[in-house]
Sequence to fold (676 residues):
Amino acid sequence: MIARSTLKLAATMALAISLLSLLAMALQYRLVESRLTDATKAALSADLAGYSALYQQRRIIALRQAITDRANTGSELLLLQDRNHIRLAGAEADWPAEIQPQGTNFSSTQAQRFTHQGTEWLGVARTLPGGFPLLVARSLAPVESTLASLRKGMAALSLVLIAAGALIGTLAAKSVMTRITRLNNVADQVASGDLTARLPGPRSLDEFGLLETHVHAMLDRIENLNRATHRLSDTIAHELRTPLNRMMQKLALIEGQPTLAADLKAEMRNAIRVFDSLLDISRAEADQGSGGGLLPVDLSAVAAEVWDLYEPLAEDKGLLCTLQTTPDLHILGDRNLIAQMLANLIDNAIKYCSAGDTLTLTLCQTPEHHRLTLSDTGPGLPPDLRDAAFERFTRAPRDQVRGIKGHGLGLALVRAIAARHGAKLTLPEVENGLTVEMLWPKLMG
Amino acid sequence: MPAQTDSILIIEDDPETAAAIACEVRALGCTATIVPTLPEGIALSAQDFRVIVLDRMLPGGDGVEAIAKMRSHGARAMILVLSALGRAANRVEGLEKGADDYLPKPFEPEELRARLRALLRRATMQGQDNDLLVFGALEIRMKARTVHINRAHVAVSPKEFELITYFAQNAGQIVTRMQLLENVWHLHFDPGTNVVDVHVGRLRRKLEETGSQAIQTARGEGYIFAPLPPP
Fold:
């Protein structure tokens, strides 16, 4: 791949330089052309002045003699005729049809351009007193050939200019591209989860070197922040769980109040669950978009395992359960996170449904995705809660009234884990109950 | 039951926790050696311990990162990581890095005892490859994946078979719900509901219908697989 913008810039510059050069050459061309034409005109005037002088002395006889004496060099066209248009002197047998005599003097002011026998001429045609037609012309062929070679030279020069421009443009683009590719590779590595990726080799002392230094400084900062975040969550875990652990050990020493001890233990477990869910959500959100740590996972197998774990619970509650999975659908993922997510979803559905409701887990393949759907015919979501359902600590007031326990983190964790895997999570509109749909990116190859 | 001489190494920097662990260790009839730092723990790990109880955030580093080092020093003990890093991801990481079991803090004393017993038993059971497990009238055929009671076939689902196999491997000892979830379902998070109870309940009913009271509830702790000897 080539740096398109650099190439475009180089091409524009090469084109501009070529155009300017062409313009300069065109001006020069015009100048040469007019100079050469002027020289031809001057020569013609001199010729005419000479013939005029001879004519003043001895009229037609002198003129005839002079034209006859003039050697035929091919660069002159001379013809003198009598009043019956019979040739008196000159190389031409007949009067050329391309030019007609005008006037009677020897002035060169009304010189005409004409083409005769394939050559361009500049000349004057007169009818001298007494009806003697006279033609005096100078060939423009030398002018034409000079201009033609000038044009050829200019064309060649333009081609060389364009080629040089293109070459320089490509080279510049390639060199820019190599250096940008280096940076892009590092960015890709970082995006795929390797925060320690850095550019190898020394920095150069130019803007690219400066850019690389800045990128490195940014990456160092990201790495430090990330490490600090992880350290913080570990520290929080340690500082919270160590005292809880001491409490737990002391609880075991309390005798005679088993119900109270069990209640306290359950409360502690619940507090830890909330706390773990929050940390799991933050972690999944922090890792979102990076493929780091994800391995090929058989989604069909994980779905079946979690289903298998929860199905008896649902059946005992009187739900009608159906599992429909296409086998061997693979994704890139974290098995434990996916299992946790499915467990949250299914557990949630079982919690809200009542005897007689149906619960269906479907996993199938679409052209682009693996589609996982969990549908139930339970009470569904209150309409005003649909948008906020996946936010942390969202709970429907009716659940609190009905005494359904929860801390409003289950669906938030589901969303974070789906996002971690690049899966699209939606709540399609259904007639009754709740349907959660997830579109998972397929594992290619 | 473990022999009187079995010793357990405790690498734990919190004195209270270390004392609580030591108390459970002694309750199992084993001797406890406590060290508060990782380097000391690594240095001792090659000695003849049956189990090493290993904390993670220790002075001197992360216990899980030191497992490979202990093994290369010649440690043959079963390693139980006991840590405040108790999220599912932490547990999976610990097991992947070579821990034989992973128990998050805060832990219930019964849970720790159950884990230690299972590890002590695993240490002695390693290398045994019995196709037929017989518990009085109850027979489990590993290859055929069948269960019989008094020659009568008990129809169990594949998961129920794994469940009874795990029970059988820990026969006579309490196994906790968390252990079942981790070892039979290979899931390392706390589902919050007692999903496991439903499965155990179903298996238990099947066994009871065929005349075996093998699975008993250990109140507040878990289950115990104690098949009665044949009459």
